[in-house]
User: Fold these one by one.
Assistant:
Number 1:
Amino acid sequence: MFVGHFAAGIAGKIACPRLPLWPLIGASQLLDLGWATLVMAGVEKLRIVPGLPGSPLDLYYMPWTHSLPAALLWSAAAGLVAARWWQGVPRAGIVVALVVFSHWLLDLVVHRPDLGLWFDSLKVGFGLWNLPQPEMALEMGMVALAGGGWIALRKDAGLSAGPAPGFIALLTVLQMVSLVSGATENGVQMGLLALFGYGVTMVGAWWAERRDSVASRR
Ligand SMILES: [Zn+2]
């Protein structure tokens, strides 16, 4: 899953409008930000298996970012940091923790069994990647739904809707680019590509809200 994760970040914004969107977007991909870094360092591993449907990635070793205990630890840590950082914002910690953990649940739906229930063992994954069209429909459907909720939230707060469709368009373009760009077995290249993609979306989310005053984030 790629852009579908961002829907969870937008849902976090709807649940806690006083949080800026860009860290929520980062939270929705925090496990992959960690994965990209560890793949570049050679700690977590991937290989390409040509002919695998949906995604040719075989993510055969990622116990530190995509196992259930690791995901729970990352979520708890991010929640604690957020609760401290946004002390005056009720629910900030729990919303950020849930957005981080949503990544694992969504990966569980699409990944082939590569998510360890206990670090590198007991791997699970429902494998929706094996059905590329329904998988894509799910991702884009989630983004559309969350985007609709976000537009409604902005209108309610008396903000212009414009930046929301702009950000959704950016996500759609990134999804198309990821479809045609293919994957590589080179961990450094793959990690840089992922960090670049997530960096662009976080900048895009910041851009979408750059003219909103904090007071309008109710
Ligand atoms: Zn992931």
Number 2:
Amino acid sequence: MKVLKDDFEKPKYSFFARFLHWCFVIIFAYGIYKQVDDINQLDDISFFRTEIIFASVFLLFLIFRFFYMTKTQKTSIPEDTPKSQKFAAKIVHLSMYICLAGIAISGLLIGYFFSLGFRDELLMNIIVGTHEFFVSIIYWLISFHVIAAIYHRLKNDGVWSSMVPIWKERKINREKSQ
Ligand code: HEM
Ligand code: HEM
């Protein structure tokens, strides 16, 4: 039998988990803002160095966050959510990690081959193409992720408030199968 439970549950993610999520959103937005528009910009040594440092910090942050989240946190998706939805959320989250790592690693590879003197060779074009491919996929995944977050907000099931500090759900509806 399905019963509706109203309560005022606290977010399930730790403060640090939420802090990491939003710090990363800012770092990512900065990465998109300062993107390389033309490969020849890398001839500027200080620009080149900044790109490499940024991509390395980005990657280390991502790896740290991945292990912190998977080892210490549990999804806030209610237990009685259909398996297909839980699976979709897992796939989208994992794909985001893979794509973000792909962007940073392919960026570092561009830097490595650029420093070896590669410019318009096939190998360089393939790596830049891969870098751009990961960028376009992440835009899709983030859009999907944000739409899903808004969907949960409208469902009032606590998922939104577990991560987002604004437009909080005050009454959380959790349908529980008994
Ligand atoms: C995590 C760090 C990075 C982020 C978030 C990032 C982001 C981006 C974005 C959004 C684009 C535009 C893609 C498009 O228009 O389809 C781009 C292109 C590019 N990025 Fe990165 N990037 C990063 C690291 C790097 C690094 C380390 C290098 C090399 C040192 C690099 C070199 C390039 C190049 C050569 C292009 C193509 C520019 C062109 O259109 O000619 N990126 N990157
Ligand atoms: C760069 C943009 C973003 C990325 C890469 C991202 C990534 C992630 C990832 C990987 C998770 C799973 C938990 C974790 O490992 O941290 C997550 C959870 C979550 N995010 Fe984001 N996020 C982004 C932006 C946003 C935005 C803009 C919103 C809201 C408008 C949002 C709302 C949420 C919510 C509600 C959860 C909890 C979902 C759950 O427990 O299953 N995220 N995010």
